[in-house]
Amino acid sequence: MIQQQRGYWGLAFVLISSSLLAVMAYLSSDTMQHRQKSGKKFGQIARALQQYHERFDAFPPAYVSGPDGLPWHSWRVLILPYLGQNEVYEKYRFDEPWNSEANLRIANEERNPFSIPVENMIHSRAQYIAVVGEQTMWLNTESIRKSNIQNPLNEVVQLAESYNSDILWTEPRDINFGDAKKWPADVRLPGISGQVGPPYFAFADGSVDVLYLRNMKKPFEKYLLVK
């Protein structure tokens, strides 16, 4: 009887183990697909920034100020034509702030080109964000040229993935250098974060990659600086 019970437990263990392995394999495959989609989407945004630079000989500013001196329009809105979103760009009211009734309607009703592609999830948050601050790629209302960048272009972070972002995609707000440089020690919301695993980063040369701690040539905050 004891031997028979052991046989049952052994069979049960094998069945449970097989089920767990199957679930883990499914989750791993599903996760990889999401990661690949996010990397592809990020690559499109990085290319749009490069095309903007080709057109204006400079990258867009972090935001455009309104007559009141306050941030009115995000860089994300400025590059919409380079993401194939001309129709949305034409609808956007540049003579009104980002949070006017008309512009908020666009943010909430139009397809968000700055969200991580996840099935059955539609939202208005910007999950690809800029790091704003002195000596970064984003100097508030100032545009930066590639010729201003002294560090290797493929080592200067331009954008970061922010899965837990609370920023509306049309909102002229991103993450400041002081908060960004705390990654990965500080992963409190909102901030730099990947959907699963380490986040993607877009660099000044248009490349998109993951920064692993073990492979970093220098402290992370140095990757955020142009010189």
How would you characterize the overall build of this protein?
By secondary structure, the chain is α+β, with helices and mostly antiparallel strands. It has one domain. The chain has 5 helices and 7 strands; from the N terminus they run αββαααβββαββ. The protein has helices spanning 2-56, 75-78, 86-91, 101-109, 177-180; strands at residues 63-65, 71-74, 128-132, 157-161, 175-176, 200-203, 208-210. The protein has a 5-stranded mixed beta sheet. Strand 1 (63-65) and strand 2 form a beta hairpin. The protein starts with a helix and ends in a 17-residue tail after the last strand. Mean pLDDT is 83; it is low at 1-27.
Q: Termini distance? A: 75 Å
What class would the helix/strand composition place it in? alpha+beta
Bin the helical content. 25-40%
Low-confidence stretches: 1-27
State the strand order across the main sheet: 5-3-4-6-7
Overall mean pLDDT: 83
Range of strand content: 5-15%
Radius of gyration: 22 Å
Please outline the major beta sheet.
5 strands, mixed
Number of strands: 7
Shape: globular
Count of all domains: 1
Number of helices: 5
Q: What attributes does this structure have?
A:
five-stranded mixed β-sheet, globular, two-stranded antiparallel sheet, 227 residues
